[in-house]
Design brief:
Layout lengths: L1 E4 L7 H17 L3 E4 L6 H9 L2 E4 L10 E4 L6 H9 L3 E4 L3 H15 L3 E5 L5 H7 L6 E4 L2 H5 L9 E5 L5 H14 L13 H14 L4 E5 L5 H12 L4 E4 L7 H4 L4 E6 L5 H13 L4 E4 L13 H14 L1
Parallel strand pairs: 1-11, 1-12, 2-3, 2-4, 4-5, 6-7, 6-8, 9-10, 9-11
Helix pairs in contact: 1-12, 8-9
Length: about 325
């Protein structure tokens, strides 16, 4: 029995940046540091940061006035930004730059007085953050059926953007349906699709023809991790999304000769290693690292973090 490791897998540049922002804020300011919502959707990451003095909250009103406050990688609504300013919170925005890019594109469409469509899953923090950037109606949809039921005020004045944790493959049918029904609709170029989401799905697609079991490392509330599991299932492979090695059941690997392992963009490599150790206990002998797309993207930290560092240096000099 062997393991084939998908490549790339695990943390993307936006997740790396968000976690580093929280860790640096702890280093520069000390505990507690407050984070609105989960910084990324991974239980292991949240538990680790909580143990080090990070307080995760659902609403800004739970945070003391003037406290260091970090907005999660998923982005927030304009009303949240204003509330943070009004309460005098020391806000550090950890929104993924690719999410910010979606906000900026949507703003351009809004300024053109186009009716805005957001392809994504209602209730997801990124979707709620994006739709909350605008004072009027933003239509959220994710299926061809919803496109067919759409009744815009002016079909010639439509535009769409997409949730970043959905790949081109996830949105292709919906985008095609929008273009077919509304030929004048505007939308982002293919280059605006999140590279990390697409790369991880491509890696799984390359993998599934050579394995008879797929294990995706990630939390149940991680959108991109769920899409990886669904991709395996669509290809007819037994696929499981797990957060801890203890979740692996011995009967999953019975009779299996090759096991594919990947990780969602918010799952740390340390969890992948623990999963591998568990699979070794169950009889895996060989591990093969697959070739894949090299990811060289990096993002700068926000200026508010540099300001916090400068204040610390001033106190210690």
């Amino acid at each position: 029995m062997e393991i084939k490791l998908a490549n790339p897998r695990g943390f993307c540049a936006g997740v790396d940046r968000a976690i580093e922002i929280v860790e640096k804020a702890l280093e520069y300011h000390g505990a507690p540091v407050y984070v609105l919502h989960e910084i990324v959707h991974n239980r292991h990451v949240i538990e680790d940061l909580s143990a080090r003095g990070v307080e995760f909250v659902k609403e800004l009103k739970e945070i003391p006035s003037g406290a260091v406050t970090i907005f999660s990688a998923h982005g927030v609504a304009e009303s949240v930004v204003r509330e943070g300013e009004e309460r005098g919170l020391r806000v550090i925005d950890a929104t993924c730059p690719l999410v910010t890019k979606v906000h900026q594109q949507a703003q351009r469409y809004w300024d053109q007085e186009r009716e805005l469509i957001l392809i994504g899953h209602p209730g997801h923090p990124e979707v709620e953050g994006t739709r909350g950037r605008f004072p009027g109606k933003v239509t959220v949809l994710s299926t061809v059926e919803e496109v067919e039921a759409l009744e815009p005020k002016d079909p010639s004045r439509l535009a769409y953007v997409t949730q970043t944790t959905l790949s081109l493959d996830d949105t292709r049918e919906v985008i095609d349906a929008l273009n077919e029904r509304f030929p004048d609709i505007s939308g982002p170029s293919l280059n605006d699709i999140c590279y990390a989401t697409q790369n991880r799905q491509n890696a799984v697609r390359d993998l599934v023809g050579d394995v008879d079991l797929l294990i995706v490392v990630g939390s149940q509330n991680s959108s991109n991790s769920n899409r990886l599991r669904e991709l395996g299932e669509r290809e007819g492979i037994s696929s499981f999304l797990i957060d801890q090695p203890e979740e692996i059941q011995p009967e999953w690997v019975l009779g299996k000769s090759s096991i594919g392992v990947t990780a969602g963009a918010s799952a740390p490599e340390i969890l992948v290693k623990k999963i591998i150790d568990r699979l070794k206990e169950l009889g895996v002998k060989d591990i093969q690292e697959m070739d894949g797309e090299a990811e060289l993207v990096t993002f700068k930290n926000p200026p508010e973090l540099d300001q916090l560092a400068a204040e610390m240096n001033g106190k210690t000099s």
